[in-house]
Write a structure and sequence with these properties.
There is one protein chain. By secondary structure, this protein is mainly α. It has one domain. The protein is 74% helix and 0% strand. The chain contains 7 helices and no strands. Helix 4 packs antiparallel against helix 5. It starts with a helix and ends with a helix.
Length: 266
């Protein structure tokens, strides 16, 4: 286990840089650039550029997720960092009496099933007001943090990294099951000189934007697996600091989108 930790963390960071770097390229650069291309140029550029870019994009997502799961197992589920509130017994998951807590298992399961709730909401209610959907999403994340801390008895590091795992799972799902299939149809249509189905760019663009917003909190949770300095730093309720960070991260991405719209070529 001690050997796996640094090796998979190394691979995890490499895959994550590849994935998130291309995610930012798509959202902050390529969208504005593609809008300047005429039909003939798109027919030449898109079938050559996009398959190559999307190859690294989707496999970067896959390997980031796989290596992240390995690290979760090595560090938390079978490792030395306790999932419990006290963190004194070094066990995987324990309540204050040192016994295995069934809610810890349930919250781990919820971490990886939340993606289906997310996908359902945005497939069923995606036409609702963006601010309303954002508030609903933020509330559901807050509920996850609450139940991890108070029912699953996750410690600070544990609920940080499991919220990160939840975001990462949603993001990888979007890449493989929403963005990539839509992009395949878009590329094929452009290559054939046809107009893509309007639903495909809308789907790919929306889920890619979701991934961009989730990336900032995800990066935070990865960093704070290593430290507890922000644990109750403001003296607030368990998990409130993480919710503040998520909101700040979303605002940073919002500002990046605004800046991206203003950057021009020569």
């Amino acid at each position: 286990m001690e050997l796996l930790h640094p090796i998979f963390k190394w691979l995890h960071i490499f895959a994550g840089i590849t994935w998130i770097g291309l995610l930012y390229f798509f959202n902050f650069i390529n969208g504005s650039f593609a809008a300047t291309l005429d039909g003939d140029t798109k027919k030449k550029v898109v079938p050559e550029l996009m398959p190559r870019t999307l190859y690294w994009f989707r496999w970067g997502a896959a390997w980031t997720w796989v290596t992240g799961i390995v690290l979760l197992y090595v560090i938390f589920w079978s490792g030395s960092l306790s999932m419990g509130m006290t963190g004194e017994d070094g066990s995987m998951m324990a309540d204050s009496e040192g016994t295995i807590n069934k809610w810890s298992h349930i919250m781990i399961l919820a971490t990886f099933l939340a993606v289906f709730v997310y996908d359902f909401i945005y497939k069923k209610f995606g036409t609702l007001n963006v601010r309303l959907l954002t508030l609903i999403s933020f509330s559901l994340i807050g509920a996850m943090v609450y139940f991890m801390g108070h029912c699953g008895e996750f410690g600070f590091r544990a609920y940080n990294i499991h919220i990160g795992a939840m975001f990462g799972t949603m993001m990888a799902f979007n890449v493989w099951f929403r963005i990539w299939p839509a992009q395949q149809r878009i590329i094929t249509a452009i290559k054939n000189g046809d107009a893509p189905d309007s639903a495909d760019p809308a789907m790919a663009g929306l889920r890619s934007k979701h991934n961009t917003y989730m990336s900032m909190p995800l990066i935070w949770t990865m960093i704070n697996e290593h430290t507890t300095v922000f644990n109750n730093i403001l003296g607030l309720h368990t998990g409130v600091e993480l919710m503040i960070i998520i909101a700040v991260g979303w605002h940073i991405i919002f500002q990046c989108y605004k800046k991206a719209e203003k950057v021009e070529g020569f």
